[in-house]
Amino acid sequence: MTRSSRITEDEINDLILKLHPLLPDSSSRCNTKVSASKIVKETCNYLKKLHKEVDDLSERLSHRLASGNVDEDTIRALLRR
Amino acid sequence: MKNPNTLKKKLASRFLKAMKKLKYKMSPSPPASIAEKKRRHRAVRAAAYASMASAVGPRRAWSRALLRKMKGRKRARRNPGNMNTRFGLNHLCDIVPGGEAMDSCSLLNETAHYIKCLVAQVQIMREILHSSSSSSTIL
Fold first, then answer.
1. Which has the closest alpha carbon to B4: B98, B111, B121, B106?
2. Do A62 and B92 touch (CB under 8 A)?
3. ipTM
């Protein structure tokens, strides 16, 4: 897709607003009241939080793996869903 | 974006396969040293990001960046000109894989997709943890 090299701040602002519904607690706040900068900041925080969750869950899963308590049947069921 | 259920299934299947491989590399039950526990933790975490990246494949810049990182390739060149700093995007680009090489528009599109995949991955990992409680069948 070709686009002109000057992308307007309005276009960027619109793209940022589209991120808002992906953030947690976004439904409890009126869209028009949140600034683009705030959305970007909250997106950064949310991503860091998700990375931390992956890290914590990885640690817990590594313990579970080692102890051998992961059920083959439940995993097949998970995959089927 | 693809049907989220298809993506989730793909993520789950790859991650579980990776976990199975890890399982066989682990020495059995006697308590592991702290170093060994850390190694296992890092291995599972690497498997999580690896399976995310390979499930999405080369279709996204963020997954390409992760795949490059896994293969030990060099990072894409940092993109100096096009990052809009007014909204704080210069911080976001350091958090999203490959963000440093993207222009503002790409970064925002990639971020949206990356968030959805991360959320799905977290859900899968939680489901595996919660489902593996009572039974003792070995993976």
1. B121
2. no
3. 0.88
- Beta carbons within 8 Å of B77's beta carbon, 6+ residues apart: B101
From first CA to last CA, the distance across chain A in angstroms is 36
Chain B partners of A47 at a C-beta cutoff of 8 Å? 92, 95-96, 111, 114-115, 118
Quote the minimal CA–CA distance from B128 to chain A in Å: 7
What is the pLDDT confidence band of residue B135, given thresholds at 50, 70 and 90?
A: very low
Contact A59 B112 (CB under 8 A): no
**In terms of Cα–Cα distance, which of B86, B136, B120 is closest to B5?**
B120
When pLDDT is cut at 50, 70 and 90, the band that residue B45 belongs to is: very high
Round to whole Å and give the CA distance between B105 and B108.
5
B13-34 mean pLDDT: 80
Contact criterion met (CB < 8 Å) for B115 and A55: no
**Distance between CA atoms of residues B12 and B48, nearest Å:** 10
Q: Which of A53, A65, A79 sits opposite B23 (nearest CB)?
A: A65
**Contact B124/A41, CB-based, under 8 Å?**
no
Contacts of residue A15, defined as CB under 8 A and 6 or more positions apart, other chains included, come to B104, B105, B108, B109
Query: Roughly what angle, to the nearest 10 degrees, separates helices B4-25 and A72-80?
Result: 160
pLDDT tens per residue, range B77-134: 776 566 777 889 999 999 999 999 999 999 999 999 999 999 999 999 998 888 765 4
By residue count, chain B amounts to 139
